[in-house]
Structures are given as structure tokens and as C-alpha cells.
Amino acid sequence: MLKDIKLVEEFKISTLINALIVAYTDRFYKRLATWWVDTPEAERPAKLTAQMNAFSMAYEQLDQAYLLSSKSALTERIKEKDQRRDDLLTSLREIITIKLRIGTAEEKEAALLIKDIDARYAVKQRDRYEEEGLKLAQMCSDLIGSMKNTKALQAIGAKELVQEMQTVNTECRELVTLRNSERSQQDKGQMQAARDRMVEEYRLTVLLLNALALTDADEQRYEPLVRELNEDIRYYRKVVLQKKEGNDDEDPEPDQQQA
User: Fold this and answer.
1) How far is it, in rounded angstroms, from Cα 211 to Cα 229?
2) Of 136, 127, 121, nearest in space to 169 by CA
């Protein structure tokens, strides 16, 4: 009579986006490692020890590749430039507000003109780098490219501020373009290689776990681990993959389950 043994369910992690495959395999390994620590040393299969080491190395490669694809040496420089252009835009809007409130008639007229231009482009400082950069570039070009608008800037004492904002914005946009190019040329290949290795090590680990569960003399030895792993798999299928799959900021981990 065949034993009714629970096995790790099939789950194609190759279908997961980068953030989710990193999170899922991290969770998988932590489950396995916890079970390993709780298992008496004499009962730990040597084959599983070797496979866990292989899995761990594959995960380290995947995690490192993901970090490289998510970050860049240019990121901090981009953040600095973005913060500076945001500060300058805030200062311009503050000047407009002050001049409209207590300025001379000429200053109020100039401030109202600049305010209308600002409202037309509706630059939002929380927009994505590319979107904010494009709107700000168009706005600065409009402000500085017209003699009428330039005179209005001079009237409220903001010409040099806008010129600096245009320069900083151009530098920020160039850095973003460079970073995007850098990622597309270098990081994609590294990430794909790491994904491929992780997918294979995951497949081998699951195969080995299921084989051990079927052949072990103690039918209950692997049952708690298999149950937890299957809970995670079902969670990813039913919850995570039905949410915003493209949102890398989503927390993909399930709540802690009691064994």
C-alpha cells in the first residue's frame, strides 16, 4: 500500500518578476534552514546538506544581481540633483507668493505671469524622475526663451534662480538617461544568468526534498517543512500574483505561520 506522503507542490518560479523571485527564494531557504537547525544532526541527509549549500550560493548571486539592477553608482548623484531642482522650484514658488502679497504693482504683474506659466506645466516634485525632468525642462525653456518672461523673472529677482534650475535639471536628466542605459546594457545579462541558476537550484532542491520525503523511514520527518513550503506557494499563487505584480515595492512575504 502506497504511503500518503505530502510533497512540495510544483511552482514555476521562473514566472516571477525579479523582486518576487528574490523574496520567494529567500523565504524558501529560511524555511528550509529553520527546519534543518531543528533536525538532529544525525538525521540530516548529506545530499540535502550539499544541495542547501548550492542553493545558498545561487541565492547570493541572485540577490547581488538584483541589488546591482536596482541601484547604481549614479543613484546618489541623481538624488542630489533631484533634491536641488526641487528646492529651487520651491524657492521660485515662494518668491511668487511673496511678490503677489507684498510686491509693487510691477512685481505683482510679473509674479502673476510666472505663476500662470508654472500652473500650465504643473510640475510635481513627486513625479518620476523622467516625467518631472521633462516638464521642468519645458517650463524653464518657456521662462528663459521669451524676452517677456525673462523680464518678469528679473522683476521678481528670480532670473538667476531659474537659470540654475534649468542647469541642474539638465544634469539630472542626463544622469537618469545614463543610469538607464547602464542598467539595460550590463545588469540584464547578470540578472538573467542569476535567475536561471536559481530556477535550476530550486528545482533540484524540491526534487530532492520530495524524494527524501517519499523514502524516509520516518513518514512525519518532512511533513512540517513541506506544509510550510506549500503554504507559501499557495500564498504566492492566490495573493501575491493577483496583486500588483509589477510593483517592486509590494511586500511579497506572507505572515509568519505557526507550525
Assistant:
1) 15
2) 136
Please name the amino acid found at residue 255: D
User: Number of C-alpha atoms within 13 angstroms, CB side, residue 120?
Assistant: 11
- Going by C-alpha positions, the residue among 236, 235, 238, 211 that lies closest to residue 222 is 211
Task: Name the grid cell of 230.
Answer: 506549500
pLDDT at residue 116, rounded to an integer: 97
Q: What CA–CA distance (Å, rounded) separates 219 from 229?
A: 17
- Sign, CA dihedral 243-249-252-253, equals negative
What's the pLDDT at 254? 45
Backbone CA torsion sign across 147, 153, 154, 156: positive
C-alpha–C-alpha distance, residues 229 and 227, integer Å: 6
Res 259: pLDDT = 29
Sequence-distant (6+) residues with CB within 8 A of 212 are 45, 47, 48, 222
pLDDT at residue 125, as a whole number: 85
Is 76 exposed, middle or buried, given 0-12, 13-18 or 19+ CB atoms closer than 10 A?
exposed
DSSP string, 108-138: HHHHHHHHHHHHHHT--TTS-HHHHHHHHHH
- Give residues with Cβ within 8 angstroms of 34, minimum separation 6: none
pTM value is 0.55
Cell of 194: 542569476
Q: What is the pLDDT of residue 195?
A: 94
What cell does 12 get?
514555476
pLDDT score of 243:
56
* C-alpha–C-alpha distance, residues 99 and 123, integer Å: 21
Mark the ranges of the chain whose per-residue pLDDT is less than 50: 1-2, 244-251, 253-259
